[in-house]
Structures are given as C-alpha cells and as structure tokens.
Specification:
The complex is a heterodimer of chains A (about 260) and B (about 350). Chain A has a six-stranded mixed sheet with strand order 6-7-8-3-9-10, with helices on both faces. Chain A has a four-stranded antiparallel sheet with strand order 2-1-4-5, covered by helices on one side. Helix content of chain A is about 40%, strand content about 20%. The longest helix of chain A has 20 residues. With about 260 residues, chain A is of the alpha/beta class. Chain B contains 16 helices and two strands. In chain B, helix 14 runs antiparallel to helix 15. The longest helix of chain B has 27 residues. The chains are: A alpha/beta (about 260), B mainly alpha (about 350).
Chain lengths: ~260, ~350
C-alpha cells in the first residue's frame, strides 16, 4: 500500500481520459476516466456487459474510442496501430485465452518477444550470426520465464493439448516475455478453481513486486480483486460507478446495487 | 515423446494442422538416406528417368513454396501457376533474348516473382479462406491469356511460346570427368544443378520457418488478433509470405523452363495450380519434406492411372486420389509418423 500511495503522487503511468465507445448506437463506454500509477494493481470490476473488456480492447487498440484519449507516460497511444502497442510496453492476456494453438509452449512464449527483437526474412533464411545471437538471447529469456511460471515440463508440448489452467499460465508467460510496463489481465481467474485462484493472486502480486510491472486487472472474481488490488474502479453500463480502495468500493451502495441487486447481501 | 506423436495423429483432420517443430523436418539419418538416393540414382538410370527426376525436384520446390504460404501463414492459393509462369518466362526471355547464362536468370526470376507475389498480397490482405482461394484462382485463369497478348508477343512468342536451349555441363566439370574417361549428359548435369538449388531452397525454407519470421507466419495462421497483440505486423508478414512463396515458385518455374526447353502459355494453366495444391495436401500441409512426396504424386500417379486404363485414366486418378485422402488425410506426414512409431516399437522388442 505504501508503494502505491507513493506512486499516486507522481504523474500516472497510464491515463484514461473521458473515453467513450459507441457501437452502432449502443454506448459501450461512456466518458470513463481513471489513472493507473506505476507499481499499482488496479482492479477493474463490474457486472457482465459493463464495458470492461471494451476498455481493454481500446487499450490494445482493437477498438477506437469515439471520444477521449488514452495516454501512456503522457503520450497518446491512439495513433498507434494494434501491432505497435506491445513495443511501448503494454502487454495483455485475453478473456478466453488467445494462444497459438498449433505451436508449442516454447514458440508461443518466443512470440511474446517479437516486439522486442528484429529480423528480416533474408537473414532468417540464411541463419546469419546475428540472428543466431538474437535467438540465443530469446531462448534464454523464454526459459527463465517458463521456469518462473513453472512451465518447463510442458515446454515442448503443443498448447492445444494442455489443460485450460495451464494455457492461461502460458498466456501470462507470453505476455511477460515482452517485458511490458503494464500488464493487462482480462479475467485471469475465469475457469479456475478456488485453490488455483488463490495461487494466481499470489502470482500476480509476485509479478508486480519481482518483475516491477504495473497491473490492470479485469476480474469477475471479487475475492481475488479485493485481496490483491491497491485500487479499484467499478463500471456499470459503460459508466464509472465508483473508484477507490477495495474497501471503499466494496462498501459503495451503487456498486452493491449493481452487483448484487439488493442491499441485504 | 510418444504422447506428442499421438497428439498429432489423433488431431481432427483440418487442412491447416499442427506442425510441432521437431516434426517439421526429417531426422539426420533419414535425410542422409534421402540425399544418398537423390545423388546416386541418376548414375544408374536412363536419361528420360533423369529428366523425370529433375521435374520431381522442380515440382517439389513449387509445392514447398505453397507449403510455406498455406502451411506457414495459413493463406490459400490456387494461383501458384501464375507465379510459376512468370518465373519460367523470365528465365526463357533472359536466356533467349538477352543471351544470359541460365543460372543467372534464376535469381532474377525469383526476385521478379517475389515482387509480383508481394504486390498481389496487398489486395489479397482483405480476403481470407475461400475468398482468397478464389482471388488467386482468378490470377491463375488470367495468366495464360496475358502471356498470349499480342503486345508482349515480340518477347513471349505469343501462342507459339519460346524454345529454350538446353545448357551443357560447364567446361570445368567436363574436363574433370574426361580425366576419369566419363562423360556427363546434359540431362544429368541439369539434374545435379537442380538438386543443389533444391537443397539450398529446402534448407533456407526450414531456417525461415524456424525463425522469428516463421513464427510470425504461424502466429498469423493460428490467431491474427493475438499475433497483432504480440507486435506482429499482420499485413506485412502476410504479404511477405506471399512474396516468399511466389519467389520460390518463380525459381522453380525458371528451372522448369530450362529443363523442359520450352515455355508456352498453355503449359501454365489452372491445372498446374491445382496439381501443386494437390501435391501439398498429399505431402502433408505444413510438412516441408512431404513436398517431394506430393510432387511424386502429381508426376507419377497420372501415368500409373493411364497404365491401368487408357480410356478412364482421369477416373482412375480420381479414385486413387480419393483413396489417399480417405486413408491418410494428413498425407505423407501421417505415413512418416506411423512409420516412425513402428520402427520405435520394433527397436523396443
């Protein structure tokens, strides 16, 4: 908490400013603003259809906001095409796991380093010395990450054959391989059992502390968000309902109403 | 190990399927046996068989090029005959009109076809799956007529086509062999020349598919959105895959022109494009060594069919093709994997 409090006094790492997204008359996001500070774990919560994933897709440039701006370290990211988001330090995982199913775990994670390396088809075909050196660096890093996430034993396995929980870890490994400043996690606890969620919470905190990343977490699992987030933003019907510490947001009457539908719970 | 192999076999039969890295190439032992066969067989057979073996390599290269495009980047093409034709005509025109050395025409054919494929890849970016297949089909249909156009006739020879001179073995090789009182035929020389180029292209292609660029191709094949989130420029790599595939096909076309000694518009119709596609499926999509098996299928099986029944050769070919697709939907790769398992079991006992 102290770390987060310290960070809040500085300028935000990521600033979402008044972002609105409209899909053919349906307002998916309506003037949402919040700041993400370095070293924070920010939980983005809200019922289904609240606009959490829409916001994520704006951050990874899959959707274009109709109004508003998104700033990373003060510079707008909205002029960048989707494939040039990884290089500025925004990495993500997907809600329903978007791995490369026919590739091995190793290759999936190697692809995570794509934005951090260069090559051209001629040098690659000829396997020139510099290509071999880059590949050796990539392999070293990939194996370090696989070790970190305990995936070494399945390194050579094709990902389509792995259990869902393991696939989610592979996706996390792939995101880590790009050395992002901000890690966007879209429902990492989805499909995990109680025990796995607990382990995941510890892991996200460890990643923040040991790998010095800032985490933006979209999550349905309230227990997870409340236990690991420093700051929580609650959305409903595309609007920001509440923002503050987990305890504050949890106690907010609007949030309780949106989530539970009645005050008794 | 065995679990990984079973995974491959039990997969649902899709056109685009898993290519585990280890399974993408042959083992060292198998490669050496294959190389030995390719090197030694021509010494013991007649010139016509050597010619057929040269064509086997050339179509193998063309099938491999399609394999990089479809197996690698997941894009379909029924237009490979157009790239093959451009390569063939480039070599033929440079040799006959500019008097250029046959070997030097090949890199030029490759570069021109790369550019052609890269440019064609730009509009093709908006299409995928069957729509892309149709767009490339249109290219294949248009090409023979473009080659017949009166405007280009002074270079292309119009409907007549061009006759290409068959190259002699170089002086150095001839004099070296004369020391041993041996003589090398034109066919044999051309075979070894083609073999060297084929091996080089095969090695470069394997390197490419195993590299950062190759991973980007396969990432696009598997999941475009995720590839883009990883920083892969999807448009660039898709067009590059088209360029590389067309470039390699162009080299194959150039070699084909030199070997057949003749280029004419009607040699490069849609039938050729479909044959190459067929070769890729029979060899195993995404499995580069299968290309040579696919090539053998499209060269020899029509002859076998004709041997069985002259009048119904097409029908016999159809039945044979149907049997192959029904029995081994993953093509030669599946046969190779089963063979590997049998050998493994044999060794254990």
């Amino acid at each position: 908490m102290t770390q987060a409090q310290f960070a809040e006094r500085q300028s935000p790492l990521l600033a979402v400013r008044d972002v609105s997204v409209v899909f053919g008359g349906i307002v998916a996001l309506n003037g949402v603003s919040f700041n993400l500070h370095e070293g924070q774990i920010l939980g983005l919560i809200g019922p289904n259809g609240a606009g959490k994933t829409t916001l994520f897709n704006c951050l990874s440039r899959l959707y274009q906001p109709s109004v508003g701006d998104i700033l990373l370290e003060g510079a707008s990211i909205l002029s960048r095409p989707p494939h040039r988001i990884a290089e500025i330090g925004i990495g993500r995982t997907f809600q329903n796991v978007a791995l490369f199913p026919n590739l091995s775990v190793l290759d999936n994670v190697r692809l995570g380093t794509h934005s951090r390396t260069t090559s051209d088809i001629i040098s690659d075909s000829l396997k020139l010395a510099w290509v071999r050196r880059t590949e050796a660096t990539v392999n070293k890093k990939v194996h370090e990450i696989l070790g970190y996430l305990d995936l070494e034993s399945v390194a050579e396995t094709t990902v389509s054959g792995l259990p869902f929980g393991t696939q989610k870890r592979v996706e996390l490994a792939r995101a880590l391989a790009a050395d992002p400043k901000i890690l966007l996690l879209d429902e990492p606890a989805g499909g995990l059992n109680h025990e796995e969620v607990h382990v995941l919470g510890d892991l996200i905190r460890r990643i923040r502390d040991e790998r010095h990343m800032t985490v933006l977490l979209v999550e349905h699992h309230m227990g997870l968000v409340m236990s690991i987030a420093d700051h929580v933003v609650a959305l409903n019907f595309g609007r920001k309902l509440a923002e503050g510490t987990p305890a504050m947001v949890q106690a907010d009457p609007d949030v309780i109403k949106a989530y539970l539908g009645s005050k008794d719970q | 190990m065995s679990a990984a192999i079973e995974d491959v076999v039990t997969e649902s039969p899709g056109v685009i399927e898993a290519v585990p890295k280890r399974a993408m190439t042959l083992g060292t032992g198998t490669s050496l046996v294959m190389l030995g066969l390719l090197l030694l067989t021509p010494l013991f057979v007649k010139n016509f068989i050597i010619f057929q073996m040269t064509m086997l390599l050339i179509y193998g290269v063309a099938v491999l090029a399609l394999n990089i495009l479809t197996g690698g980047s997941g894009q379909f093409s029924l237009g490979q005959s157009a790239f093959y034709a451009v390569g063939a005509y480039t070599s033929a025109i440079l040799m006959e009109h500019a008097g250029m050395n046959y070997a030097l025409t090949l890199p030029i054919a490759g570069i021109i076809c790369f550019a052609f494929g890269f440019l064609f890849g730009q509009p093709a970016l908006r299409l995928s799956g069957v729509y892309l297949a149709l767009a490339t089909f249109a290219l294949a249909t248009a090409m023979p007529q473009l080659l017949k156009l009166g405007y280009f006739e002074q270079w292309t020879g119009g409907v007549q086509g061009l006759v290409v001179t068959k190259p002699d073995p170089p002086e150095a090789v001839q004099s070296m062999l004369s020391w041993l009182h041996l003589k090398m035929s034109q066919d044999m020389w051309l075979y070894y020349f083609t073999l060297v180029i084929t091996i080089a292209i095969y090695i470069f292609s394997v390197n490419l598919l195993r590299s950062r660029s190759g991973r980007a191709f396969m990432a696009i094949r598997d999941n475009e959105i995720a590839a883009s989130a990883m920083g892969v420029d999807v448009a660039l790599y898709k067009t590059l895959a088209f360029g590389v595939s067309a470039g390699i096909t162009g080299v194959a076309g150039g070699l084909g022109a030199i070997t057949v000694q003749f280029v004419a518009p009607d040699s490069y119709t849609i039938t050729l494009a479909i044959s190459l596609f067929l070769g890729m499926v029979v060899g195993g999509v995404g499995w580069l060594p299968g290309s040579i098996v696919g090539s053998a299928f499209i060269i020899f099986v029509p002859n076998i069919a004709e041997g069985i029944s002259k009048g119904l050769s097409g029908a016999v070919f159809g039945v044979l093709l149907f049997l192959v697709i029904f029995l081994v939907p993953h093509g030669a790769r599946q046969v190779a994997i089963v063979g590997q398992q049998l050998i493994g079991r044999f060794r254990k006992n």
